[in-house]
Amino acid sequence: MEWIIVWACVVALAIVIEVETCGLVSSWFACGGLAALLLAALDVSWEWQIVAFVCVSLGTFLVFRPVAKKFMKTPTIPTNADANFGKKFKLLADVKGGRSTVKVNDVVWTVLIDGDLKTGDFVILKDVSGNKYIAECAKPESVKKEGDKK
Fold first, then answer.
1. C-alpha–C-alpha distance, residues 23 and 12, integer Å
2. Which pLDDT band holds residue 92 (cuts at 50, 70, 90)?
3. Is residue 20 pLDDT above 50, yes or no?
């Protein structure tokens, strides 16, 4: 009888946590707790109840989480840095160790870039990682075509 109470509490707690977080955090444990609760009601040994709890919780997590994530996409919050993707900027320093700097709207940013580029070469900003832009070398002909000043 005590295992029925334990599993009922596990199910209730998992449901309360899931309702409060709305992030698919504990619904898997509610399913596992229901399976264990059913076994406890049938007077199956506590070892099998725990095995059922773990297996059903893990199984529902592995099967349903990928499906649920497709339907529960979190919105991407754009930042001001995103507005500069695809734009060209002039390097303020030679690339050393895959890093250099560019000036974006009067703010100097570190850029991560592959290649042996020098001060004054142009790069195109592609992504942001933390407080650094990720860039690639701008083709010289595209710089001339667009009339960027050197």
1. 17
2. very high
3. yes
Confidence of residue 75 (pLDDT cuts 50, 70, 90): low
Joined tokens for residue 98: 């895959």
Question: Which residue reads 């334990």 in tokens?
Answer: 6
* Cα distance between residue 89 and residue 148, in whole Å: 9
Residue type, 47: E
Give the pLDDT score at 77.
65
The strands making up 122-129's β-sheet, listed across from edge to edge, are 88-90, 122-129, 132-137, 107-112, 99-104
DSSP for 36-75, please give it.
Answer: HHHHHHTT--HHHHHHHHHHHHHHHHHHHHHHHHHHSPPP
CA distance 101 to 107: 10
Q: Is 122 helix (H, G, I), strand (E, B) or coil?
A: strand
Q: Is the pLDDT of residue 115 over 90?
A: no
CATH of range 80-140; options 3.40.50.720, 1.10.600.10, 2.60.120.260, 2.40.50.140: 2.40.50.140
3-state class (DSSP) for residue 10? helix
